[in-house]
Amino acid sequence: MDEDLSLAERALGRMRSDILALRLAPGEVISERSLEAFYGVSRTPIRQALAELIREGLVVRAERGYAVAPFDLAQLEQIFEYREVVEVAAIRLAAARATPVEVDRLQEAVDRSLGDATPESWFTAGLDVHVWLAELSHNRFLRDAVQDCVNRTIRARWLVASSPQARAAAHREHNAIIALLRRGDGEAAAEAVLRHTRDVRAQVMQALEQSRRLFGARGFAEPANEGG
Prior knowledge:
Layout: H1 2-20, E1 29-30, H2 32-39, H3 43-55, E2 59-62, E3 65-68, H4 73-97, H5 100-113, H6 119-125, H7 129-135, H8 140-161, H9 164-183, H10 186-210, H11 212-215
Antiparallel strand pairs: 1-3, 2-3
Helix pairs in contact: 1-3, 4-7, 4-8, 4-10, 5-9, 7-8, 8-10, 9-10
């Protein structure tokens, strides 16, 4: 049982990395048998990994087994709207509750993470400073809400953040937010987080529109029919 769990964790890490790095393309049909052969593990670990990836929104069930989740632009817009609400609430609490030691540790972690460029290291190490900031709110529900949003947008964000220039720009903006947090200026920090999140949102949506030709129709979810 423990061996199966370890194999599932390894398979999950490799599959997640391939999805986030777009080596498994959005909309691509995948089967348990093909994944067994590709990753060299048995069906039980593959099924466990797929169940987790479905929970994370990276895989969906399809007629012929499974598929890598296509990009859903409408859903991404809603997630970014939700992020604005929870992140602003979290940063205000963090400004009031975070200790100097916690802020110092956050700064050190952000500086170290600048060199982490692979999707898997970004995902597992929590490269996204927004999750760390939410954790400093000392409210686990806000932290979990931000983490869920990050999980559901990280693949699309990789289209923007895969370049060293983009990561360096994000690092500068994160440093500015941390400086405001250190001063205990919750309102200014909230405004900075809001500007940063909206900038990222605009960059992501632009990158996705530009990638339509690359991924084709199956790479994007059909918009819901509001007319019924």
